User: Which sequence fits this backbone?
């Protein structure tokens, strides 16, 4: 079962929830946590793991072969992203603009633009008891997060088979990175705050999840901070609020040191137990147990 | 004209609250641009009138004409993004997966595919409660934030600043290190990095400041909630010193933040608060950079 933890904007406690939920689950069963916020991966700061490894991740970029090229100009014409240009008698490729669609490479009549690997980031994986942790980090200067997110999900699918619970810490926002990260999820948990900004970002995230036809629910973080507008919105929209995490300075302090919270703060543990009860009560989760029998 | 861009790597550091509070201090003397188009929140604090709505198109999306399509399947085999699938026996484009590369429309043997311009959102030139103009945008759900909408918002902000002879454009920048933030940064004269003293705050600060370094733009840092963790705060201070980043201010964990956030006001509207005093002197430093 794949569970994505998302939010309309960053900083609502998405990473806090993903890391605590995954570690708590892993105390009693196999769990996977994948940090898909490849632009700013932070989950790893909260997960302590001994054994692990890493691998470079690549995207495919055309490389010009001057010897074969006749300067016909087809590549330049077919690239919809202006990633290819001709300067004097040289074809130049701008890797940051390239979307790896292969059009230039496959339509070049001379085979003068073979696709070559180019590093875009690194994927790291660890195992700690029941918890498998995967994170990817985009190289600075790389502009496109989506290909790396897609490869990270593919890695999880390949290496963590079976019906275990897989938690995906999604990137913030409502645009393509978050869509890539939530598109296969069985359940999306939207983390929000009870403030006007929180409500605004939540409503955008809800619209996105509806457009994607995802099953979703809400966790309210920093409960008690603002007003009840987020809750009345959820009631009106018929969105289940499955747990609330209170607003406490001690939570912010533990977080600032990179500590997991549920050992220290019982309100967090209570909230996690509610979330897990909600997950286990879902039809997908029932299948897990039957599969194990 | 100066262009000051506020970024933070990840959200939740108080970037937008701070930018809006500075916008309040700058009043009618500046132009404000909300380039965090993914989660545009400045309007919560500055109440723009959403006047002058303009459509924004960016990139393309493939559309198959079912009357012409013979379901030969060539497009689906060609597409690297797995955006064309057979649904109820017919080849169908999933617009959310389509990157708009145009490869399929080029190779379709019966020319059944066209590339349509993609309507990704709207941008506005509004009047806000301080009397200033604010440029901002709204993205359609699931649209690609390629940075082009960010670039447009910034370009319009600059154009209006020039026309109205304003000396400063204040930009609430995008999160992350990808294309939207690259668009936010290009052309900036000074970058304000907002962070907080947490393990992730320091980690994100290092990543964005490395990115800013690539642009060779001078930058300064505001440490928000500075008293939350003294040890991490000191680490951040040391990092700033080492990397030649101006240390603009430490802002304490203050309940004005919450009060402002809940009431949809900027912090600088709370006259007499300790945060307002700090923000005033910080703003003076920034304006004189
Ligand atoms: S399509 Fe091939 S042969 Fe033609 S200009 Fe491009 S690289 Fe050269
Ligand atoms: S692979 Fe596609 S996006 Fe990249 S340069 Fe070639 S045509 Fe352009």
Assistant:
């Amino acid at each position: 079962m794949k569970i994505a933890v998302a939010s309309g904007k960053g900083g609502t406690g998405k990473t806090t929830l993903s890391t605590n939920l995954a570690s708590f689950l892993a105390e009693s069963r196999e769990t996977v946590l994948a940090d898909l916020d490849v632009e700013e991966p932070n989950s790893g700061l909260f997960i302590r793991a001994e054994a692990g490894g890493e691998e470079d991740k690549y995207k495919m970029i055309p490389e010009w072969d001057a010897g074969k090229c006749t300067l016909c100009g087809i590549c330049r014409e077919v690239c919809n992203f202006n990633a290819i240009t001709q300067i004097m008698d040289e074809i130049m490729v701008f890797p940051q603009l390239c979307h790896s669609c292969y059009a230039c490479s496959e339509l070049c009549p001379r085979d003068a633009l073979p696709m070559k690997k180019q590093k875009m980031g690194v994927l790291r994986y660890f195992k700690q008891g029941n918890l498998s942790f995967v994170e990817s980090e985009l190289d600075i200067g790389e502009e496109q997060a989506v290909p790396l997110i897609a490869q990270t999900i593919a890695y999880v699918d390949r290496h963590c088979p079976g019906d275990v619970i897989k938690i995906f810490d999604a990137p913030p926002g409502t645009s393509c990175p978050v869509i890539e990260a939530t598109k296969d999820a069985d359940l999306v948990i939207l983390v929000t705050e009870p403030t006007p900004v929180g409500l605004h970002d939540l409503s955008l995230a809800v619209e996105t999840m509806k457009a994607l036809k995802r099953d979703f629910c809400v966790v309210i973080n920093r409960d008690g901070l603002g007003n009840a507008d987020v809750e009345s919105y959820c009631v009106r929209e018929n969105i289940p609020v499955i747990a609330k995490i209170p607003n406490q300075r001690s939570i912010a302090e533990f977080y600032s040191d990179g500590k997991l919270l549920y050992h220290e703060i019982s309100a967090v543990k209570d909230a996690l137990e509610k979330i897990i009860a909600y997950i286990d009560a879902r039809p997908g989760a029932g299948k897990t147990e039957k599969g194990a029998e | 004209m100066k262009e000051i861009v506020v970024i933070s790597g990840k959200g939740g550091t108080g970037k937008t609250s701070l930018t809006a509070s500075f916008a309040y201090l700058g009043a009618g003397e500046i132009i404000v641009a909300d380039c965090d188009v993914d989660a545009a929140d400045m309007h919560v604090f500055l109440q723009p009138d959403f006047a002058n709505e303009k459509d924004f198109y960016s990139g393309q999306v493939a559309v198959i004409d079912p009357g012409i399509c013979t379901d030969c399947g060539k497009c689906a085999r060609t597409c690297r993004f797995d955006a064309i699938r057979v649904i109820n026996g017919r080849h169908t484009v999933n617009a959310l997966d389509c990157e708009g590369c145009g490869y399929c429309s080029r190779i379709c043997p019966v020319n059944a595919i066209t590339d349509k311009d993609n309507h990704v959102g709207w941008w506005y030139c509004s009047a806000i409660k301080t009397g200033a103009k604010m440029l901002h945008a709204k993205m359609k759900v699931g649209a690609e934030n390629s940075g082009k909408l960010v670039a447009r918002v910034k370009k319009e902000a600059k154009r209006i600043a020039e026309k109205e002879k304003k000396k400063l454009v204040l930009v609430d920048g995008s999160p992350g290190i990808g294309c939207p933030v690259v668009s936010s940064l290009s052309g900036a004269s000074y970058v304000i990095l907002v962070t907080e003293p947490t393990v992730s705050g320091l980690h994100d600060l290092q990543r964005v400041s490395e990115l800013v370094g690539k642009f060779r733009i001078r930058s300064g840092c505001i440490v928000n909630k500075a008293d939350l963790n003294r040890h991490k705060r000191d680490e951040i201070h040391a990092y700033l010193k080492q990397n030649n980043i101006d240390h603009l201010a430490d802002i304490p964990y203050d309940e004005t933040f919450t009060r402002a956030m809940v009431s949809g006001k900027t912090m600088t509207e709370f006259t007499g608060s300790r945060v307002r005093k700090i923000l005033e002197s910080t703003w003076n430093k920034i304006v004189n950079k």
